């Protein structure tokens, strides 16, 4: 079972590597890894388990954060509206790829953090507001989905990790809290 001790922190070189594509259909090992990553996120959002295992509430995790330089990400974003479960996203993506994105940009009003970063880094992380992503699932089936707002931010944050990019790489050092016109602020 994955705990915080398995998550490497900034400074570890693997976080800066470009991860390798995995064979499709995924191997049994890669399927197991993906399942464990998703289970970590679910555990981290369960108050009892998170407390017991000292987990930070996580919505996304990329294999490089487990020192495994593979193009595998897991996302588990609860829908804010229980009547609309489809607004959340809970899946493991093998070899995810952003096929296209909106010109419209967006950022989280509170900025971003990272399970691999044990410090606050203030500043807006400007990303595409909407993306079209292709990926393979554990069975090797190809999917193409459109994401927007928070789900799009989370998936972009995780795809950055498999490209060796950290969220603070996107922050404007001179004006971290400067916002260009037209950037959608997601609260
Ligand atoms: C770094 C951390 C603050 C833990 C962040 N969680 C988060 O932003 N909020 C959150 C937590 C929950 F449990 C349930 C919920 F709906 C919201 C997160 O998981 N990540 C994932 C990460 O570090 N992946 O590598 C950072 C987020 C910043 C923007 C997108 C992902
Ligand atoms: Zn992260």
From TrEMBL:
Removes the formyl group from the N-terminal Met of newly synthesized proteins. Requires at least a dipeptide for an efficient rate of reaction. N-terminal L-methionine is a prerequisite for activity but the enzyme has broad specificity at other positions. PANTHER family: PEPTIDE DEFORMYLASE, PEPTIDE DEFORMYLASE 2. The active site is at 158. Signal peptide: none annotated. It comes from the Bacteria. Belongs to the polypeptide deformylase family. SUPFAM superfamilies: Peptide deformylase (SSF56420). Its EC number is 3.5.1.88. The keyword Ribonucleoprotein does not apply. This is Peptide deformylase. Keywords: Hydrolase, Iron, Metal-binding, Protein biosynthesis. Its cofactor is Fe(2+). It catalyses: N-terminal N-formyl-L-methionyl-[peptide] + H2O = N-terminal L-methionyl-[peptide] + formate. GO terms for molecular function: metal ion binding; peptide deformylase activity. Fe cation binds at residues 114, 157, 161. One of its GO terms (biological process) is translation. Binds 1 Fe(2+) ion. The keyword Glycosyltransferase does not apply. InterPro entries: Peptide_deformylase, Peptide_deformylase_sf.
